[in-house]
Structures are given as structure tokens and as C-alpha cells.
Amino acid sequence: SYFRDNELIAARSLDRGATWSHETVAKDHARFSGNFPLTFATTDGAIYLAWIEHPSDTKNTLAYSVSRDNATTWSPKRVVTTGTSEIRMPWGVGGSNGRIAFSWYATPSGGTTTYERVAILADADTAAPDIIEAQVGRDPVAKTRPCEGGESNCSSWAGDLQQCTIDAQGNVLIAYNREPATGQSSSNIFVARETSGIKLSAK
Fold first, then answer.
1. Long-range contacts of 162-167 (CB under 8 A, 24+ apart)
2. Per-residue pLDDT averaged across 70-94, rounded?
3. Is 74 within 8 Å of 99 (Cβ atoms)?
4. Fewest CB within 10 angstroms: 29, 44, 121, 174, which?
5. What is d(CA 99, CA 49) in angstroms, rounded to the nearest whole number?
């Protein structure tokens, strides 16, 4: 998946990469983010494509679309979260049918701190998904927004990426950096595990 002008494109190959078709998944959305789009699947073969929008200077949205026919057609946009916090460097993972999760860096309006956040969804392949969103950990990961695209006045300690995955019990696992405390010379890598809520494996 990739951005082209004001369109989000899904590319697929049915012959092991020899040839490709290109389908428009979303277009005419105000101000697509420069962050890369996400593409992943659930165990039933549904394909999810997610992206960030900036519909205004003060609003940020994490959205996705789902395909149940091998990326031939796509659902309307579905919103995971929207608000004034800036969303950066998202990651996604799929579990059992309709169960997915996202993690991202969130910088509240004003840009003084950045936190790790997660959203876990059930029935994500329907028009009315069940969504649980939470902050990961008590402390911020950085004292300002994470750097991207050659910015200044930002934190390079947060790292270019944070990631989420699924463990054998269906819990969400998240790995992320946190900038060093006063007197430390290197950042800290944390792994957070879901302890309650929606499991990604329907067992």
C-alpha cells in the first residue's frame, strides 16, 4: 500500500509478484499523513489497510478499511480514534476473525509530552466495531513529539518506530522506546503486555 497524490492505493499480485494491479482504497480525504500506511491480515484472510489523516490543524484521525475478497473491493473508512492529539508512527496487527490492534505515539495538543497508546478492536470487519483505547504505561515516552522528516524541536529518543504484536495467549504486546531519565545516556526499551480487555485470539 502507498500514497499517490490524494489517494491511498493498494497493490496486489496474483502471480508471485510478476505483475501488479493497483486499486484506490481511499481518496479525497483531507491531508493524508506522510506516515506510511499499514497493511496486515487476520486469520480468516481479511486484509486491513490503515492510515492517518489530518482533517484540520487541530484534529488527527487513525482510520482503516477492510477487504474480504483478496483486496478486490474495500469497505468504507472506519475510524479507530480521532481528536486533538497528534498521531505518529502507527503499527497494526491482526488476530482472529475481526480482531485487530493498533499502537502509536500520541502527542497531546501543545506538544509538551508524548505517550504510547493502543486500540484493540473486535468485530473490526463490521460497520460497528467494538473499540477499547488506552494509554500504555503511566509515564510519557518523550518530553515533546517524536522526530520525523528532518524536523527540529522534537525528540529523537522515541525512535523511528514502536511496534505491536500478539502472543500465544492472544494478548497484545507492544515494544517502544522511552527517552532517558536525567543522568542516563541511552534510551530505555519497554515491552508492555495486555492484561485484560479484548483478546486478539478468540479462544
1. 162/89, 162/91, 162/103, 162/104, 162/105, 162/116, 163/91, 163/103, 164/91, 164/92, 164/93, 164/101, 164/102, 164/103, 164/118, 165/93, 166/93, 166/95, 166/101, 166/200, 166/201, 167/193
2. 91
3. no
4. 44
5. 14
105 HSE (CA, 13 A, CB side): 30
pTM: 0.89
Cα–Cα dist 74/23, whole Å? 9
> For 79-82, which contacts have Cβ atoms below 8 Å and span 24 or more sequence positions?
80/50, 80/119, 80/121, 80/131, 80/133, 81/117, 81/119, 81/131, 81/133
* Whether the Cβ atoms of residue 111 and residue 75 lie closer than 8 Å to each other: no
Rounded Cα distance, 128 and 19, in Å: 36
**Distance between CA atoms of 92 and 16, rounded to whole angstroms?**
24
What is the DSSP secondary structure assignment for residue 203, as one 8-state letter? -
Q: What SS3 class is residue 4?
A: strand
Q: Which pLDDT value is given to residue 30?
A: 54
Closest CA relative to residue 81, chosen from 57, 53, 103, 62: 62
Q: How does pLDDT run across 29-54, given as a tens digit for each residue?
A: 556 666 678 999 999 999 999 998 87
